[in-house]
């Protein structure tokens, strides 16, 4: 079915309802003996098995990888018997996996294909930057002057302390919460609980941000199979609907009046809520970008889970814990799972799907009906931090 067949008499395009029916991921960790293709293949096989689909049924594939990327989809899929179809490879910093997922969603929603797979994969320990901090691009003046990610979030943390009364203990509590969640997740790189004291006493990285307030470099992959709703019902009685998919790039840095708030994060959230026809109060759980512990508090406000300036109160109330009013990063987040950059944007979707199915085990959100997966990232001199941002809202 082509787009022309979906147009109504007023020239508007009808978008078909799309569902996620298969999910899979590798264990996240450091695997210097494994290639990105083998990690991706593991996730794809798991996704196919999850929904009982044959590899030949896949019609289109989008894959994302940030480092040493070359024909990622083709390299991953040839090993599992998928070839001779449209494959698109994308890169969008930490939002790469979210971008791949949206690419497949658009192809199916538009009617161009009925079944597709989104893959996010990264092998940081075998990449050209193994053992190093992510280097700035050649024209990244701020990066060469020291505005690395840790430095940026250290500055934001200081601002949060000055403006809102945040403490280092508050930031540590985010890490403690997410490492507790990760201890319940067999796919997490670190399945160990931490105390506030352990987090605070770990090596200082960019004051007040300590080592255990930072996400680790990680290898891993995740995959999700999407299809039209009529096809989904042939494979499962429990399709998870994609009720919103939004992707947006950031604006110019001089327009960002407050480093504790993300303009692009707020805008993409508003787009997603409008598309889904829901409000923040309707969301039952959130998987989000928490590369640094204090960042999670910022994102509460970006997503309107609370009013601007009230992220600390939300954290301190316990609402974002497993069993709280709005669990955030019940998977363990980037802090516990680790952050294989391009994989994270697909992995967050997989986690939301598990909760909506009631399959998340000890970290299950009770009676979850609607979940949100957010991922953003990237730094470019002269643009607001979080250059690219993607949000998907799913419902059962």
Describe this structure in words.
With 396 residues, the protein is α/β, with parallel strands linked by helices. It has 14 helices and 11 strands. Strands 3-2-4-7-1-8-11-10-9 form a 9-stranded mixed sheet, with helices on both faces. A two-stranded antiparallel sheet has the order 5-6. Strand 5 (204-206) and strand 6 (209-210) form a beta hairpin. Helix 4 packs across helix 14 (341-357) and helix 7 packs across helix 11. The longest helix is centred in the C-terminal third of the chain and has 17 residues, at 341-357. The protein starts with a helix and ends with a strand. The model is unreliable at 1-11 (pLDDT under 50).
Could you name the key traits of this structure?
396 residues; alpha/beta; 9-stranded mixed beta sheet; two-stranded antiparallel ribbon; 14 helices; 11 strands; disordered N terminus
